[in-house]
């Protein structure tokens, strides 16, 4: 399953034809035009982020900032309290992502390798969970977290994040674990190893590529999450990066240069992670949704 | 029973391995879903220790008295229809293009997919600025094309704001459909395509009679995921318009949030949520049955 989706990444030139294929040339031009349209917003945002308000008003949107104003970034950083929001986002992401993957993979192992009554039903419930929109439950989530006294705390937002991350991860890992030869775990069982040992010593090392894919996808999803944070983190000292950006736009939407600098700073971490780990994104996403 | 014995018992081990994920999932995902149904039959402001049972009043209120509900309903339907048409078609077209042996495929794919990984709230902020009628990107581009008169307040005009918002969403979501189609295209039998070509089938006929039928499963998945993601549209609308102007871009998910968390009418907000939840289930349940069948079939 992973192999099939990873194959998306490899170049395969199935029909190499000696003569120039004009249909392909036309197609290539069309694809490049779309790519230019797709990339244009980023160029516009980055250019604007280096301009003063006066420059924004007087120069063309696509004019490169010839005298770049780096102060936009430091000003936006201070006014948007990026120090606080980046710190909160980092803490929440660094705890949530590994912890979520760990509990999800334990559960996926149990569902894939230990037979117990109700396993099938449980799997169905988990599959169901991948589809339910948490956006529908913001009010009861607030009520629940509030009843634990966890509004404006890290656990108060990490626990719901975990809950809504578990189904997708369990589903994908379960599919992967089931593909691992039974003989492998059976041999270890006969030697007296407990399931926990088999899980940590055999299954986790074998599934590193899937775990990496899930880790990166979950990093971006957690880093970008907005709706739940909006409800569960009301104190501005607890805000995450997306909340900070939203508030920044509300307050300083006329400071074009700084607003765009704030956008660039918000978007940059996920973009870098994406550019470095590109292939994992595609494999992780497609292995879940499209099988074989 | 000693601890060692508990560990050696397979079932207890299963319970121990499952417990952390399961408990968190039940408490923080399943319980709120049940609670939203309970809340929809109650009157509550979010603070009062007592939640008063009021029967179906909240439902009759949103259906008959709420001036925004049906508008939000209509917008959600429009958004969903647009989402099952445009991102999948453009995504499929791009995937088919990238499936050919062309120069720079990996770079092109990376470019189309890039918006997918950006926070929707950041996309909203970006596009709000691009839609700025005075200094934004669209005014500029129209000016370059000599079409200044077409420029307008994209997000301030209630007749087009919803579609302006959707274009931002389109830019963000096309890459996702594309990647799913690319994966689906890997499953298309290459020998079958070759055979069709040898038999003299042109590009269109190969696509129509070989590729499309092989993509049936992928198409279903893409459509279902598009429907579900458009039903929960929240961040992008919140960031772009906040539901305005004059509620012309209001969505069910956002309106449910507004009722509960800003107007503090948890009953009504939850009733709206339940309506949305039921619509989602109407899509999800048949889909799950279909995918279960497919699983067993394999």
Automatic annotation (TrEMBL), chain A:
Coiled coil: none
Membrane topology term: Multi-pass membrane protein
Gene3D superfamilies with a match to the protein in the record: MetI-like
Residue ranges crossing the lipid bilayer per the database entry: 21-47, 86-109, 121-145, 157-177, 198-223, 259-277
Subcellular localization(s) per the UniProt record: Cell inner membrane; Cell membrane
Record's keyword annotation contains Nuclease: no
PANTHER family to which the protein is assigned, alphabetical: ABC TRANSPORTER PERMEASE PROTEIN MG189-RELATED-RELATED, SN-GLYCEROL-3-PHOSPHATE TRANSPORT SYSTEM PERMEASE PROTEIN UGPE
Family statement: Belongs to the binding-protein-dependent transport system permease family.
Subunit details: The complex is composed of two ATP-binding proteins (UgpC), two transmembrane proteins (UgpA and UgpE) and a solute-binding protein (UgpB).
Name used for this protein in its record: sn-glycerol-3-phosphate transport system permease protein UgpE
Species annotation: Kaistia dalseonensis
UniProtKB/TrEMBL annotation, chain B:
PROSITE patterns attached to this UniProt entry: ABC_TM1
Transmembrane segments: 14-34, 77-98, 110-130, 160-185, 206-228, 270-288
Entry annotated with the keyword Transmembrane helix: yes
Location, primary (coarse class): membrane
Any Pfam family: BPD_transp_1
Domain ABC transmembrane type-1 intervals: 73-287
Cross-referenced InterPro entries: MetI-like, MetI-like_sf, UgpAE/MalFG_permease
Membrane topology: Multi-pass membrane protein
Keywords linked to the UniProt accession: Cell membrane, Membrane, Transmembrane, Transmembrane helix, Transport
Family: Belongs to the binding-protein-dependent transport system permease family.
Protein name listed in UniProt: Raffinose/stachyose/melibiose transport system permease protein
Source organism of the structure: Kaistia dalseonensis
């Amino acid at each position: 399953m992973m192999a099939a989706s990873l194959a998306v990444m490899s170049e395969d030139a199935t029909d190499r034809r000696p003569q120039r294929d004009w249909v392909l040339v036309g197609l290539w031009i069309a694809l490049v035009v779309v790519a230019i349209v797709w990339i244009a917003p980023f160029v516009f945002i980055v250019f604007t982020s280096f301009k003063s308000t006066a420059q924004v008003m007087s120069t063309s949107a696509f004019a490169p900032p010839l005298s770049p104003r780096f102060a936009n970034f430091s000003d936006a950083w201070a006014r948007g309290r990026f120090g606080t929001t980046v710190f909160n986002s980092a803490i929440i992401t660094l705890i949530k992502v590994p912890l979520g993957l760990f509990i999800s993979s334990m559960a996926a192992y149990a569902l894939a390798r230990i037979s117990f009554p109700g396993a099938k039903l449980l799997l169905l419930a988990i599959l169901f969970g991948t589809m339910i929109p948490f956006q529908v439950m913001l009010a009861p989530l607030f009520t629940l977290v509030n009843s634990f006294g966890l509004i404006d705390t890290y656990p108060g937002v990490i626990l719901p994040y975990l809950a809504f991350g578990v189904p997708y991860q369990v589903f994908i890992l379960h599919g992967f674990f089931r593909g691992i030869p039974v003989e492998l775990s059976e041999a270890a069982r006969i030697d007296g190893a407990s399931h926990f040992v088999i899980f940590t010593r055999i299954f986790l090392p074998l599934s590193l590529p899937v775990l990496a894919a899930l880790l990166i996808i979950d990093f971006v999803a957690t880093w970008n999450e907005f709706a739940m944070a909006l409800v569960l983190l009301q104190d501005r000292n607890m805000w995450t990066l997306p909340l900070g950006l939203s508030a920044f736009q509300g307050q300083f939407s006329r400071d074009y240069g700084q607003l765009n600098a704030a956008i660039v700073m918000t978007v940059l971490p996920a973009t870098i992670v994406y550019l470095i780990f590109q292939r994992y994104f595609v494999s992780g996403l497609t292995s879940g949704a499209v099988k074989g | 029973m000693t601890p060692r014995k508990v560990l050696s018992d397979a079932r207890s081990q299963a319970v121990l391995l499952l417990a952390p994920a399961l408990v968190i999932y039940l408490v923080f995902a399943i319980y709120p879903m049940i609670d939203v149904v309970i809340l929809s039959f109650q009157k509550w402001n979010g603070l009062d220790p007592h939640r008063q049972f009021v029967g179906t009043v909240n439902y009759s209120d949103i259906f008959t008295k709420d001036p925004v509900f049906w508008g939000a309903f209509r917008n959600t339907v429009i958004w969903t229809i647009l989402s099952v048409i445009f991102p999948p078609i453009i995504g499929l077209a791009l995937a088919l293009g990238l499936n050919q042996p062309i120069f720079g495929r990996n770079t092109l794919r990376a470019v189309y997919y890039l918006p997918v990984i950006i926070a929707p709230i950041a996309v909203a902020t970006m596009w709000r600025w691009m839609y700025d009628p005075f200094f934004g990107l669209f005014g500029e581009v129209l000016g370059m094309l000599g079409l200044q008169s077409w420029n307008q307040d994209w997000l301030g005009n209630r007749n087009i704001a919803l579609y302006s918002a959707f274009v931002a969403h389109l830019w963000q979501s096309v890459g996702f459909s594309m990647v799913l189609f690319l994966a689906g295209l890997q499953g298309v039998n290459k020998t079958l395509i070759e055979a069709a070509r040898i038999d003299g089938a042109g590009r269109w006929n190969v696509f129509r009679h070989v590729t499309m039928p092989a993509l049936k499963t992928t198409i279903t998945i893409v459509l279902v995921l598009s429907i579900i993601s458009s039903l929960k549209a929240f961040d992008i609308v919140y960031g772009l318009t906040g539901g305005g102007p004059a509620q012309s871009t209001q969505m069910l998910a956002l309106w449910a949030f507004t009722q509960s968390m800003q107007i503090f009418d948890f009953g009504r907000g939850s009733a709206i949520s339940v309506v949305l939840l039921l619509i989602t289930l109407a899509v999800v349940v048949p889909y799950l049955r279909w995918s279960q069948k497919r699983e067993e079939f394999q």
